[in-house]
Amino acid sequence: MSQDLKPADVALFLPAFTIGGVERMRLNLAQGFLKAGYSVEMVALDASGPLRNEVPEGVRVIDLGGGRMLGALPKLVRYFQHHKPRTFLSALDYANLVSLWAHGIARVDTRIYIGTHKVLSLATAESVLLREKVVMPALLRRAYPRADGIIAVSDGIADDLVKYLGLPQKRVTVIHNPALTDKVLAQAQYPVEHPWLATPEDAARTIISVGRLDRQKDFPTLLRSVHKLRKTRPHLRVIILGEGPDRTRIAAAATTLGLELGQGGQVDLPGFTTNPYAYMSRAALFVSSSEWEGFGNVHVEALGCGCPVVSTDSPSGPADILENGKYGPLVPVGDAAALATAIDQTLKDPLPSEQLHARAMTFHVDRVLENYLLLMQL
């Protein structure tokens, strides 16, 4: 590091600038710290990726040169020794583990904080790999207590860390994701050229869901709920924004249920968009049918756009965001009948958009940043 370059107040570590919830939350935090007057570095194992251009101006990017995460250990040791940031924030289990090892080897005064965005016990139960089911939890149990702070993005994740890894309750702090930003609120006002949202009458019978087309989001349950509502709501339609490996399976599920695909039917799969918020601000309802969620950033974004939300009570974030049903119904995972009932009732009697927006503002980056600053003593 150059002699005239002062150590950063905050360093944020991530594997790469790929499109993902954790990566976007890191960028939101970087913007928040910078806006609050702190110097910020983003340290990436590989500093390439589609989100690289969204790094806020004024944030230094440190590229560790790529490779596997374990291979980053000596690179991170050198980073700590040469850059000596005041505080270092990591997320994702492998990155957390390597960060803690490097920090210990470097023997620097940097305070290190690790975050976790998933229910670890569920993730390990789902895996068929020995290293995921046995080795990784054992390593985390030994390493995590060495952190200056452990951050869970939901109450459910915090409880799981305490029970599954045996961490002391006082060592785990719940800080929700900074899922809402001024940029999201601005993009919500952009025009949308989808015909189902062209007029208030069209939008009133259109629901929306957003997410990667994979097993986690369980879109077939959403489609079954729409099918159940066809008798009483024959004009109901659903737009599912996202892309992923289950596109063919989801399309087949719609066809099996007699739901026509495309803008002439009841289900449209237009693919990934960088601005789902403009859809959220116009649709009658946002629905999440996920089997699990670490937090549920899209829930917050929908609320911020003034869009009513119906969600499965998936572990572990939706209950936090919707305050156990106060700001939107929560239904059992995989229960299409319950989801259909909740959709119908919410369409009949939605909460005022101002109330939904006010709830979302508790997850605005400016509000969330206050909790980070308190924990990190900056």
TrEMBL record:
<dbReference type="InterPro" id="IPR028098">
    <property type="entry name" value="Glyco_trans_4-like_N"/>
</dbReference>
<feature type="domain" description="Glycosyl transferase family 1">
    <location>
        <begin position="204"/>
        <end position="356"/>
    </location>
</feature>
<feature type="domain" description="Glycosyltransferase subfamily 4-like N-terminal">
    <location>
        <begin position="19"/>
        <end position="178"/>
    </location>
</feature>
<dbReference type="Pfam" id="PF13439">
    <property type="entry name" value="Glyco_transf_4"/>
</dbReference>
<dbReference type="InterPro" id="IPR001296">
    <property type="entry name" value="Glyco_trans_1"/>
</dbReference>
<dbReference type="Pfam" id="PF00534">
    <property type="entry name" value="Glycos_transf_1"/>
</dbReference>
<protein>
    <submittedName>
        <fullName>Glycosyltransferase involved in cell wall bisynthesis</fullName>
    </submittedName>
</protein>
